[in-house]
Amino acid sequence: MNFRLIQSEWHSIECDALLMPIFNNDDLRSGLVGQINQRLDGLLEEMNRNGEWKAELDEIATIHRPAGLPMGRLILVGAGRSEDYNSDRIREVMTRAVNKLKTYKLRRVAVFRRSSIEATAAAQAAVEGVVLGSFEP
What we know:
Layout: E1 17-22, H1 31-39, H2 43-49, E2 60-64, E3 73-78, H3 87-100, E4 109-111, H4 119-134
Parallel strand pairs: 1-3, 1-4
Antiparallel strand pairs: 2-3
Helix pairs in contact: 3-4
């Protein structure tokens, strides 16, 4: 496995799948999640309203070929509450997400950083989670 730490806007990341942590206390109409919702023509609000997506821990929603975006899939990863999103939670969330996505034949996967902790610590936790999630005994 190869890992690279890059700094980029979420909507410009070219990859097979972008793992996007979403917090259950995110506002669907403003900030980053509001931007995502707008780019998806209100899909996040609709999914939330219908009970399909609440961004709770262990929830995953896959948006295939999102229109106008360079990623093949936008994978929404429920990350619980934003105030609980530390290194341990990042590792846990990424482990669960990658474990659920093992059957996908993805070559280039990106993880978007949503934490307020230092970038290299967040990247290390994400990589550890990806490695743990992809482990095959």
